[in-house]
Amino acid sequence: MTRTSYRLGVDIGGTFTDVVLMRSDGRIFSKKVLSTPQDYSQGIETGISALLAELNVDAGDIAEFVHATTVATNTIIERKGSTVGLVTTKGFRDVLEIGRFRTPRLYDIHYKKPAPLVERRLRLEVIERVGSDGGVLVPLDAAELARVADQFEAEGVEAIAVTFINSYANAVHERQAASYLRERFPGIPVTASVDLLPQLGEYERTSTTVVNSYIRPVVERYVSSLKTRLDRLGIKAPLMIMQSSGGVSPGEVVARQPIDIIESGPAAGVLGGQRLGTKVGVADMIVFDMGGTTAKATVIEDHAFALCPETEVGGGAALGTRMIKGAGYPVQVPTIDIAEVGAGGGSIAASDAAGGLLVGPRSAGAEPGPVAYARGGTDPTVTDANLILGYLNPSALVSGELSLDIEGARAALASLGERIGLSTTDTAHGIHAIADATMLRALRGVSSEKGRDPSQYTMVAIGGNGPVHACSLAEAAGMTRILIPPVAGLFSALGMLFADVEHQLVTAFYRRVDGVDRATLDAAVGPMTARGLDMLRAEGYHDPAQQRTALYADLRYMGQTSPLTLPVPDGEGAMQALQQAFHVEHRNVFGYASEKEPIQFVALKLVCRGVAETPRMPDRIERGAEKTATRHTRKAFFGEAGWVETPVVPRSALGAEPMAGPVIVEEYDTTIVVLPGWEAAVDGWNNVVLARKAG
């Protein structure tokens, strides 16, 4: 008799840790527990252990474990990374300090760039020089390198970054230095820039290498700790971690190159939304993900999400690939284009000096959390406001596992209302509306600010708080259709189970497009292809049918600074087609195209995917072992309509025939608030479909 197998997905958020178990027949079981910021792996172990015990599932039956984590991002934001030593070419010690002349607030004369992650005393130079053509101009000075190592040892550095000028053209000196330092310091991770980003741009390459070094010891310890906990639970499946690009990679690979997981958690939700759209035939959507700390938005067009060649980390929430940059540290790794704002269920509401109402970006997080959680929180939050408005169950969340203190929340909102001259209800409604206005910035950051009309897209609302705000946010954006998938509140944990194993490789390729033929291109790509296929075979993808590669190129007009990434076509005429595609994309992104200007390659990027033999996504998802809400009514506040006695139903009460709002749909992991003027139905894949009634 064949044993039932399971796939396990775990997503850590700022407030909750989500655990999703998918049985081989597509049935879903889930657990939502409060995150444990002091050691996030503890919350993972707690959630998994509780879920397996409830279901009486043997940990040995888990065939796959996929994880998304914020540990890399939090390390940078909280400035809790390792002490890094940087080795660079003589004369380039201050590349990180100089950076780029960009600021997120153009006319703010008091704005200060974030301090470099490596102090100047630990940015040390050695004599060496390679020309831009790859020729060695000055040999590497071994005595200088030894002196640098002595200083690092005296300073107690915990990680070392090596970045030499023009090493992308010839890596001989950088590899010599890295090899020497690894032998000298066997217990200290050494990151060479050519192993991460062998391409033009000394500042971007140095920043990327330093960020990787800064977070690497932290992520290595985290991966090791998590593996220990999985072993203790009896889970033998390899640890796979979600990457920022939408693929997954083995834990040991991520530990060496943690810059690949900067946007790990948000990427999982987007990937899940994209796969869902392909399944149900929705090509154009905006994925809206609202959790406890932040809200994210991503646009998907023609079943594909956009990848950014660069992202900035450590500078607060970002609005996608907008032209406003300079707030954080640039990292050049493929990242799904996600706009993020500091608005979530835990966002704290307060009054400003003028007596106005403020919401976020400060968050109550998991500890102490919203006032209603009764864990020591005293500042009212968006969750407290939604509770008072009647949108959330007044007694408990997650099917009674998290009891709520509604009177504590009411008192906190009343106190804030007294300070700003509003009633408790108006204060709560104001908090809800301001949170919507903040999140609207994220929606516009990926749509209208890029020439897209959001009304032409379907919203996919996920996250614990996404379906609560979906209707009111859609109305503000002019959207008329919303899709809320099964397990919406844990959809990032589910979405990562749909991802393929993926590796992103890059090589410098600096020449004009019109001077390159296909043979030259293939010769440059050959070594990358061999390396990528070796990595896939090492992970068990031996059959060529399971190995997929896709080639992309970073292109720009001659003399430009910012390249665009485009797929490289196959066959004859590929270079001509690539140039034409670049003109079109340049017009889409920047508003113009210079069709008489020559185009040059900057870098080539190869994506290698391992495709599983069985489909990653089931035909239909059903939840199992879930306590469902009993039908009842409660009063909820809907703005101009005032307080309305509103039906409260489980998802199972909805059918193909639309149910008119207002109605509240309560589930284990989220609550769907259907406003007056909207209708709710269920489609064949068990998605709740909300539609705004005409007129």
Describe this structure as you would to a colleague:
This protein is of the alpha+beta class and 695 residues long. 31% of the residues lie in helices and 27% in strands. Strands 13, 14, 15, 20, 25, 26, 34, 37 and 38 form a 9-stranded mixed sheet that branches. The termini are far apart. The model is unreliable at 319-323 (pLDDT under 50).
| Structural class category | alpha+beta
Largest sheet: 9 strands, mixed
Whole-number average pLDDT?
A: 88
Individual helix count: 16
Radius of gyration: 26 Å
Distance between the termini: 58 Å
Helix content: 25-40%
Q: How large a portion of the residues is in β-strands, by DSSP E?
A: 25-35%
Unreliable stretches (pLDDT < 50, length at least 5) are 319-323
Shape: globular
Number of strands: 38
Quick gist of this model?
The protein has 695 residues and is α+β, with helices and mostly antiparallel strands. It is built from 16 helices and 38 strands. Strands 13, 14, 15, 20, 25, 26, 34, 37 and 38 form a nine-stranded mixed beta sheet that branches. It has a seven-stranded mixed beta sheet with strand order 12-11-4-1-2-3-31. It has a four-stranded parallel beta sheet with strand order 6-5-9-10, sandwiched between helices.
